[in-house]
Amino acid sequence: MNARSTSVVRALWLTARPKTLAASIVPVLVASALVVAEGFPFVTWISIFAGLSAMMIQVGTNYVNDAIDFLKGADSESRLGEARATQQGWFTTRGVLALGIAFFALAMAFGLPLVWEGGWPIVAIGLTSLLMGYSYTGGPFPLAYLGLGDLFVVIFFGLVAVGGVVFLQLKVLPVSALVAGLQVGLLATVLIAINNLRDLDQDALVHKKTLAVRLGPRLARLEVLLLALATFALGFYWLSRGWTYAFALPILASPLAIRVVWTLMRTRASREYNQLLAQAAMLHMLFGVLLGIGLFLR
Question: Which of 70, 94, 154, 184 has a CA that sits 20 to 30 A from residue 227's CA?
Fold first, then answer.
């Protein structure tokens, strides 16, 4: 630990990437509201443990990514993003990896009651989520380095996260869970898409072939636009069911979505994208809260 850089507690906090943690909270919030909207009894402890387990997986993934990206040269001193633990010398690479594994273990601990409740499907979801969390940058087929990171986020921070909680609560998986999961997952992917666009040049140098690297800056910006448009377009599903609030309330987040996309379209990648990422995270949280309220009210 480099004591001159920052305190241990602050370093641990920054390494967890707190601005991204809404990605594990929003799906649980939306899924919980959807259970109520579908007219089923809501079991509080299931959502709490699911949220804690999901957050531990995300933090563990962030720690593992921090270490592996540094080892592969993706996090050099020239990176435009915020400080990373191994890059700054706050912790050793081995120490950061150990912390990541520790958080994965915590995720398993919080997930045990969920396994008891949901059985083998939850075992499969949990183990796959842990494996994919590590494989995001690690292992023989690192998703982020193959251009599959965006798809990973849609699936695991959207469809799986929302669908898993709904399944635990209802023991069935309605179409509405898939729609809500897509909305949440697509907006979560906006964050990773902006992050990858910011880091495009550095990633290309170390052969980290993110989707932004594969598409190029122009199409990478178009991806963000399409992700945002698809998220709001899916809201018509709620309108088709007569759930007016679930359709209308999330639209209140559209001005922020327009601001994020408009700024991205008109500016070149720079350290200012860090502020844009914060706005995208706020958009994800705001949309999730509004959708949750809308589902509760229907």
Answer: 70
Cβ contact 275:194 at 8 Å: no
- Domain contains 255: yes
Count other Cβ atoms within 10 Å, centred on residue 172.
10
Confidence label for 84 from pLDDT (cuts 50, 70 and 90): low
Phi-psi region of 172 (alpha: psi -120 to 50; beta: other; left: phi over 0): beta
Domain count across the chain: 1
Helix (H, G, I), strand (E, B) or coil at 43: coil
Element (H, E) at 205: helix 200-205
Note whether residue 231 is domain-resident.
yes
CATH number at residue 185: 1.10.600
Q: Which of 187, 158, 132, 189 is nearest to 31 (CA)?
A: 158
Tell me the pLDDT tens digit for each residue of 231-271.
999 999 999 999 999 999 999 999 999 999 999 998 887 77
Whether 130 and 108 have beta carbons less than 8 Å apart is answered as yes
Instruction: List Cβ neighbours of 226 (8 Å cut-off, separation of 6 or more).
Output: none
With 50 as the cut, is the pLDDT of residue 111 above it? Answer: yes
Residue 85 has pLDDT above 50, yes or no: yes
Please state the pTM of the whole predicted model: 0.87
Q: From CA 156, how far away is CA 163, in angstroms rounded?
A: 10
Neighbours of 107 (CB within 10 A): 23
Rounded to the nearest 10°, the torsion over CA 283, 25, 167, 61 is 110
What are the tens digits of pLDDT across the range 281-293?
999 999 999 999 9
Packing angle of the helix pair 254-266, 175-198 (nearest 10 deg): 30
